[in-house]
Amino acid sequence: MLSPIIVAVDFADVKSAWNFIDRVDPNDCRLKIGKELFTHAGPDFIKQIMKKGFDVFLDLKFHDIPNTVAKAIVVTADLGVWMTNVHASGGSRMMSAAKDALYSYGKDAPILIAVTVLTSMESTDLQEIGINVSPLEQATRLAILAKNCGLDGVVCSAKEVQSFRTRLGADFKLVTPGIRPAGTNPDDQRRIMTPQRAQAAGSDYLVIGRPITQAEDPAKALQTILATLDASKSESHYV
Ligand SMILES: O=c1ccn([C@@H]2O[C@H](COP(=O)(O)O)[C@@H](O)[C@H]2O)c(=O)[nH]1
């Protein structure tokens, strides 16, 4: 019923965010609210978007001691968001605490995923922080850890999707930012792929921000990208 696109609603102000949200259909995308807009607008804004029928991915990437992360995850579950996340590099005790905190929500729990290696990072960035393996090797290690902790999926680059699908199974959600239509500015992203290739590789959800939000007409930019995707490969009827 829904498209695989999650729009990263990274607008600098709430008015611009509403200007976009009011012009798009919940069948055409889910919405990801990250640190910038959440810090501006807070939980009430999230509730208003959900009232309009949008699934919300609250992308706050929690990374802290297990107790703190578990309590923060409970607050996101109480908000009723569709998806939420932690950093896998917080380790297995932290991820397990987050997962356990959702136990009492049963089927109403948000999808809980873990960020592996940020799509803005390449080998040199990893070396700087003492990680001397490739982004694929490090992301694989963290994705396996996340799966073993019972998480529902990971955030990774679309470049890692084929390998992860084989190793981690069909049901493990692969959520991929770093999506750039051919010929567009990569900005600060490093491990990128086009929407069509990411979908063909097997990404469950394509997270797309600036190619939509910074376009002259963001709602039209979303439609243009949707039209390039293969509707038969998703849950949806969006073309
Ligand atoms: O590894 C990651 C994890 C999260 N993100 C977030 O996705 C969007 C991408 O926005 P673009 O404008 O399409 O680059 C943004 O909100 C990031 O915080 C990511 O890019 N990579």
Q: Give the number of DSSP strands.
A: 8
Identify the overall geometry.
globular
Report the average pLDDT across residues: 96
Instruction: Kindly give the count of domains.
Output: 1
- Using the CA coordinates, give the radius of gyration: 17 Å
CATH homolog superfamily:
Aldolase class I
In the CATH classification, which architecture applies? Answer: Alpha-Beta Barrel
DSSP helix fraction: 40-55%
Per DSSP, what share of the residues sits in E-state strands of 2 or more residues?
A: 15-25%
Strand order of the largest sheet: 1-2-3-4-5-6-7-8
Distance between the termini: 11 Å
Individual helix count: 10
Structural class given helices, strands, pairing? alpha/beta
Keywords: Decarboxylase, Lyase, Pyrimidine biosynthesis
Family: Belongs to the OMP decarboxylase family. Type 1 subfamily.
Enzyme class: lyase
Active site: 59, 61, 64
